[in-house]
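ERR on first pass: missing label on line 2. Operator R.T. fixed the label and resubmitted. Corrected input:
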Amino acid sequence: MAILDILTLPDPALKQVSEAVTEFDDALRAFIADLEETRRNGPAAVGIAAPQVGYFKRVVIIDCSTTRKPVPNHGYLVLVNPEITHWEGYEPGREGCLSVPDYTGNVIRATRIHLVARDPNGEPLEFDMEGYEARAVQHEIDHLDGLLFVDRVVSRRTDLFKRKVYQKGGGS
Amino acid sequence: MTNNWYMLTLIGEDKPGIVAAVTQALFERGLNLGETSMLRLGGNFTIMMMVGGVQQEDELRAQLKPVIEAQGMRLHVDAIQGRLHEHVLPNIQVTVTGADRAGIVAQVTAALTDVGFNILDLESDVAGTAHKPVYIMQIAGVADAPIEKIEAALEALRKDGVDVNVNAVDTYIG
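pass 2 clean. output:
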């Protein structure tokens, strides 16, 4: 077990697209243990993605069970090769990132998603997620695709007007 | 070397190129920008920015005078502490909308002050039309008080026809 170094902006490696995991072996599981230890070491980190520690494979960890105010969640999840197969609705919410210290901003994310993934042994996983947990998965999958939340930040001034208009229009 | 920090406040009629001209002038004189806020307020362009450099205040004013005048802006300078990397995370967001009338901001913020709410960021705007103006305000801040207590403090305003929403901000870190 080891705490790994976290890549931070403006490290160009954060823009690298990660590859699918094909070998569900002990080396993968050992890496996942280190990744989890690194997540727990991070200040208030709810999730972490493998490329944040320079391991460019499609692995993320989230745990939305410890928010101050409880939210719908599936607890501690290791998601290998995660893929969102359905999106619904959107809302702004505040995000920060271990790779972008001392900065938070508002990002618009889908409110409900359907997710398929593998566990560390290669077994299939499937979830319906909403709200904060759906946000967590979208933030982490962005890392796998070389995107940071700062690429998606919107001003509060902008999102308020949009949200009000669309809500009255009955959503889309 | 950045020894001295100043908060520059610049205001003038909005037109294209103000930010480019002002920041170029700062750059050419070796000044660094810290945190800034730049936005259009009712036809005026407003800039508040932390600027750091070796200059003394008089020297800074003299150096910036030509560009400020060329842009038709007015400048105000305050010496400050350049405290970067100290962002405070909001845990509560309050959104207020209502027919525009005198006193909304004062009443809302008085109620928030009473429950120990510290405002980090407040944006307010007048939407709607000249005949039917609507006041919209978003406040992000920090409070130890539970949401229920903040809600209760704002209840009187709701009865007065102002729409007030209080939400916990759970910042996702990942």
